[in-house]
Amino acid sequence: MSVSMGQLVNDAKELVMRLKEREKSVDQAVVQSNALAKKVDAIQQLENELINLNEKGNHRSKVAVLSSIQKENKVIKLLQQENDELKESLKEHQSVLEFIMTKYREQMLKLVQLKREQELCENFFKSALSQVIFFY
User: DSSP letter string over the chain?
Assistant: First the structure.
């Protein structure tokens, strides 16, 4: 069996290409396995934290938990009461502001009307004065 040198070179090139493809596949598998390892580590860490929390929760007595909840409820009620007071205060401030703005608008309307009247009077005075001057 005689194999030519060209055929050997071609076979070697083909083997090199296959090796490169397999190397890429291996690299992708390594990347995927690293990602999976990170996920597994994160899951284990979460599991450990949950176990610690459960242990801490089991050590607290029901009385302590109830006491804590009652304290929180008192704080919540105080905050709700303060919130209601603030809402009431806001309503009062809004009504006062509306009253002030109404008065302001009324005064501005009067001012505009007075300016118009003043302009009419000035125009009337000027025309009357020009007529008086015209007669003399």
Answer: ----HHHHHHHHHHHHHHHHHHHHHHHHHHHHHHHHHHHHHHHHHHHHHHHHHHHHHHHS-HHHHHHHHHHHHHHHHHHHHHHHHHHHHHHHHHHHHHHHHHHHHHHHHHHHHHHHHHHHHHHHHHHHHHHHHHH-
